[in-house]
UniProtKB/TrEMBL annotation:
InterPro entries: Cl-channel_core, ClC, ClC-type_chloride_channel. This is ClC family H(+)/Cl(-) exchange transporter. CDD domains: EriC (cd01031). It comes from Anaerococcus degeneri. SUPFAM superfamilies: Clc chloride channel.
Length: 422
């Protein structure tokens, strides 16, 4: 019988955290390098550079296709695969998959497609945990996988507290002394290592401090929670539903796989604002904002671009895009309220950040993680926990009433069906 955890194994989790911090920190840096390189061709006015951009994005599609073809466990966000590893329903060669996942994710995310870094960060962490755990056969392997996966989340968002809660709500889905101690040690050492080596700053920088929202305005936040919940239901239906649509399309596998790269590339040539996961769109209220019609267009475009990439199983996550889409939803709602004179214009930004928490809660169904994540991502600039809690739980309840499955639970069930069929 394996021990759950022993004091002799504790240094192993510290070492694992250091490894994970370096791995995910390097992963983020490489994404930044590729993204900066690609934007250099996208944002010029010369036709030659635009042709080069399309050629590069198509080339990246070809390279990643053969990586994913060689190892199916490098597909998608990777969180469902990691769940399968912990439940012994999926066989994964961690040493092989960690290399393919790193390369495919760096190229796909850096190319400008609407996918995020957080899912691959969680899987890369989990794979590193599995490799390290093999040297400690007397300690539960899942403690290494789950703790390092949570540490990957922490470094991806620079949000150690939210990642500890994410470990309870999504990774382990239980709480005891062993899971807490192993996760805490790994997350803290990973976050400290990443901060020392790559810099310690909030995921969203230069967010202004906001005053707490008056309790008389809480009814507006309840409405926002309902809207975020309904948007979460739509998000899950469109993004996960795209997988079923792709299966019905009778085209060669390579053609279907390259379609998101080609279509996204053409869209970005027309509107570069839609580049990558959409983090920059969170800052719109502080940059003069956009017209209401433009915001609605951006909301729809980002959901469709994510569905386009996610449905075919490209190596990339959905959490950063869903946060960006949530921020756009909040921006739309806040702009309408400001036009009606119900809130001052400077409060639109705060409403956008609040909506991010509601959107995350409705889609992933982890409301406490959503609350703490926004606090940490903004560096505490928005500190109204009551409002964040209210929007998160109303959005959660709305999604439950609509019988929308939690995002990763739905993906995992689909993955198991695919595994059985193959």
């Amino acid at each position: 019988m394996k021990e759950k955890i022993s004091f002799k194994a504790l240094p192993a989790f510290v070492i694992l955290g250091i490894i994970t911090g370096l791995l995910i920190g390097t992963f983020k840096k490489f994404i930044g390098f590729v993204s900066h390189f690609m934007e250099g061709f996208l944002l010029t006015d010369t036709k030659t550079d635009k042709v080069i951009f399309l050629a590069l994005i198509l080339g990246i599609g070809l390279v990643t296709f053969f990586i994913l073809k060689n190892d199916k466990n490098t597909k998608g966000s990777g969180i469902p695969v990691m769940t399968g590893m912990m439940e012994d329903t999926i066989d994964v060669s961690s040493e092989k998959t960690i290399v393919g996942k790193f390369i495919a994710s760096v190229l796909t995310i850096g190319s400008g497609l609407t996918v995020g870094r957080e899912g691959p960060s969680v899987q890369l962490g989990g794979l590193a945990g599995d490799i390290v755990g093999k040297f400690f056969p007397n300690t539960d392997r899942n403690l290494f996988i789950g703790s390092a996966a949570s540490a990957g989340f922490a470094v991806a968002f620079n949000a150690p507290v939210a990642s500890l809660i994410f470990a309870v709500e999504e990774i382990f889905r239980t709480h005891n002394f062993s899971t807490f101690l192993s996760s805490a040690l790994t997350i803290i050492s990973a976050t400290v290592t990443s901060g020392l080596v790559f810099g310690d700053h909030p995921s969203l920088e230069n967010i202004p401090d906001f005053a707490n929202i008056d309790q008389k305005s809480l009814v507006l936040i309840v409405i926002l929670g309902i809207l975020a919940g309904l948007s979460g239901v739509l998000f899950n239906k469109v993004v996960i539903g795209s997988k079923s649509i792709y299966k019905k399309i009778s085209l060669p596998e390579l053609v279907k796989y390259l379609a998101p790269f080609v279509i996204t590339g053409l869209v970005l040539l027309i509107d570069p604002r839609l580049y990558a996961s959409g983090e920059e769109l969170i800052y719109l209220p502080s940059e003069g904002n956009e017209e209401l019609a433009t915001l609605i267009y951006m909301y729809g475009a980002k959901i469709l671009l994510l569905a386009l990439a996610f449905g075919i199983g490209l190596s990339g996550g959905s959490l950063v895009p869903l946060l960006a889409i949530g921020a756009i939803l909040g921006n739309i709602y806040g702009s309408v309220l400001a036009d009606l004179g119900l809130i001052p214009e400077e409060m639109i930004y705060a409403i956008s950040l609040i909506a991010m928490a509601g959107h995350f809660s409705a889609i992933v169904r982890t409301p406490i993680t959503a609350i703490i994540l926004i606090l940490e991502m903004t560096g505490g600039a928005f500190s109204n926990i009551l409002v964040l809690a209210l929007v998160s739980f109303v959005a959660y309840l709305t999604a439950e009433i609509c019988h929308s499955k939690p995002f990763y639970e739905d993906l995992y069930e689909r993955l198991l069906i695919t595994e059985k069929a193959s």
